[in-house]
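About this split. The held-out portion is used to measure sequence recovery: a designer receives only the structure tokens and must propose an amino acid at every position. Recovery is the fraction of positions where the proposal matches the reference. Here is one held-out target exactly as it appears in the evaluation file.
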């Protein structure tokens, strides 16, 4: 049983990309450039090269207005942000 867990952990470590580690802004930049910039733009203003082709239009992160949130306040929870980043609209 223990060998199976060790094997699973080794597989996870080889499959999980190094840039996806938590807490490093540089890693977040890499993820944004790979997954988000095409639509949301280099500045995060929603004016990426693919933005004109999308409906709804990509969110402008610069404005700080979040449409999708479960909180009553204007600030989304960490869970809200994680869900929308993971699942998209």
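Reference sequence for scoring:
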């Amino acid at each position: 049983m223990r060998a199976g867990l060790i094997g699973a952990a080794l597989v996870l470590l080889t499959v999980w990309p190094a840039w996806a580690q938590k807490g490093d802004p540089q890693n977040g930049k890499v993820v944004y450039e790979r997954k988000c910039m095409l639509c949301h733009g280099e500045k995060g203003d929603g004016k990426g090269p693919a933005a004109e082709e999308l409906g709804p239009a990509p969110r402008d992160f610069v404005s700080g207005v979040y449409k999708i949130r479960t909180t009553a306040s204007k600030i989304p929870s960490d869970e809200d942000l994680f869900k929308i980043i993971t699942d998209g609209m």
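Annotator remark: Helices lie at 2-15, 25-35, 37-40, 78-87.
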